[in-house]
Amino acid sequence: MSESAPLTIDQPGQAASATPPAPGRSRRLSDRWLAGAFISPALLLLLAMSVFPLLWALYLSFTDYSATRGGPAHFVWFENYTAILTSAQVHLRAFTTLIYVVGAVALQTTLGFTIAYLISRRTHGRGLLTTLFLVPMMLSPVVVGLFWRFMLDAQFGVINSMLGSLGLGQVEWLTQQGTALLSLIVVDTWQWTPFIMLIALAGLTAVPKYLYEAASIDRASEWFRFRTITLPLVWPLLLIAVLFRAIEAFRLFDLVYILTSGGPGVSTETLSFHVYKVAFLGFNTGTASAYGILMVLIVLVLTQLYLRYLNKLKED
Amino acid sequence: MPGRTARLATAAMLVVTTMAACGGGEDDGANASAPKAPATIPELTKDPLTLSFIWFDWPPAHALEDFANAEYTKERSNVTIKVKTVPNANWHDAMFTQFAARKTDFDIPILDSQHIGEAVTNGNILDITDFVKKNIDVKAYNPYLLAAYGQYPQAETGKRDENASLYGLPLLGDTWTMIYRKDLIGDKPPQTWDEMISVAEKCQADNPGVSGLAFHQANGSDAAAVTYNTVNGVYGGNLWDAKSRKIDGVVNDAAGQEAMDVLVNKMKPLTAKGSGNWFIDEVNAAVAQGKACIAFNWIAASGGLLDPKQSTLGTTREQILDKLGFAPLPSQKTNLVPLGGMGMHVSAYSPKANQAEALNFMKWFERADIQKKWAAAGGVPSRTDALESPEFLNAGPFNKVYTDSVSRMRDMWNVPEYARLIDIENTNVNAALNGAKKPKDALDDIAKEQQAVLDSSGRKGGGGL
Known about the structure:
The complex is a heterodimer of chains A (316) and B (465). Chain A has 316 residues and is mainly alpha-helical. Helix content of chain A is 68%, strand content 0%. In chain A, helix 3 crosses helix 7. Chain B folds into two domains: 49-174 and 340-410, D-Maltodextrin-Binding Protein, domain 2 (3-Layer(aba) Sandwich); 179-338 and 415-455, D-Maltodextrin-Binding Protein, domain 2, CATH 3.40.190. Chain B has 19 helices and 13 strands. Mean pLDDT of chain B is 92; it is low at 16-32. Chain A: One of its GO terms (biological process) is transmembrane transport.
């Protein structure tokens, strides 16, 4: 193996453009080999931490395996999937999750965009205001859940104390069916509105100024400028933010766990919280795996439809 | 084509790893029952060793670590005791996810009595029957206490089956105590459940801002379920027929319905607004802040009530005790009280040296002199001599309540499906208490759903929903 030996070339067409190795480099250390060596740790990590668990869960979803009972996993094929899709318990949790996702994302989008719009119109203190608004997003959901739990406490909480000082009655925020889900939506909105705001602000600041200047020359009203310039240009970016938030909201677990434990009864149990119970109370690992796979599939299908809509919007 | 080769190699690797993992799973079935501990304690190591417990985070856990490090190390100076704690709601999951991995970072899991069935069936803890025969004076205990914290299959209420296997020994005894405001309702505690309700009603009416009752209602852990089970027992109901494994028609019979009616329609209106998610800490807070006439809580969690730093009832322990009284639960059709507390067990996955040390610790802990010291340190012992000792009875005003309640205790179901049974009961009782379900519907749903869990225990696929 002399140093002057030519490189092994995978595709003849690339022969003319192939860079010769630096003098002294081992013949084995081709660019392709080096590239492979550099990406292999990340690739192996991805395979071990994401791809393999997903495939393993897929396999378990067709079995009756229980992590605590041990023993061989017997194939039950689609029985887990059938049981989940026909379960009234699951339908109830799916409905709760749907209300939560729609309520939280709609509120966050409206508030986030409004705040971003107001901030974008300021010339001074924009950076400081943006930083302050982003603080809730930086906190751990568990910490957020715990302090909101104290604030929403019917007896000792600051929210009811404030309502009391206004002459209003006590509200059982976390223990009544009508208010518990609303409380979850409010807390999630408090934490994640800044995310929508941030994306919307990026979109708003990217709108070319000459468009507004041209509109001003034409004496276009504020509303007309918003409707025909601002919104259409920011809309695609906002929809991506909505997509991220909807996926996150769909997976909601931590706030439910801390604030309501799914109560009263099971009225705030989301799909993720229910999967947790199936997986770790009864240790029905096979069923829980199928449940998780179905949730991933739902997110994938809805995301695909959404992205197609976004692409169509872009083409138009 | 290297791109194609790489894709094929990746796919092959995934298939191989998946197959390897599948193969590993099949071997797990070999160990499906609890392995036996030796009758005699093996030779103990002289090397430094940390003996780890796992429990939930509450005062007795910290008391145990301090007590064991102070006393056990006098005899075993190379040993350090570590009590790992997790939030109460994660307690079962924290232990059983490690059991599922067949590897534990604890040597002595402290199990609720109802967890024993699940741990034994899965082979997670050692069978210590022979060890107990050789090392423990079983006659020193009330037989039911020994059975409740160690026997499987579950003992009949109040009894012990001497032929059954033992998997644990008592660590901390417990039951509910009634905590009442002597300054508001008088020195004499109510004797019957109906009397207790009417006294609480009058107290609430006479003292604006103070609620008549405070008790566990949360839907986490076993909070709301224990409350219903207690009222169910007092009003003559049963949770199930253990022999026929029948729940539907038993828990929701006439006595069960009456108990649910009493709980939701008579007791709940006497509680503070928004108390539908209260558990141990919230009930204690209400008592300490003078916001409840009568409350129910676990004895082992009541120590903080006498701390002037945490109370508005007085600036000294004596002042607080002038206002607070502790009594056994009132009776009605029966005098049953809930069995609380936990036993200590040995992890089947601990190293042999740690298992030997764990057995030695258990033998040491169950000695008469150590049980009395444990009582003096704030623990609730289980040996009869310790329960009747001045060390225990003088250690806290609620300790006599425990001694008087031992013969009245009733446990829940100790079966592998316990975690799901308790969740069904918790969520439904919590729903009834917070107006999300009608009491009768909630009870019927409990019966139907719990029965389905028991009936589907051998089901292939779709279980757990």
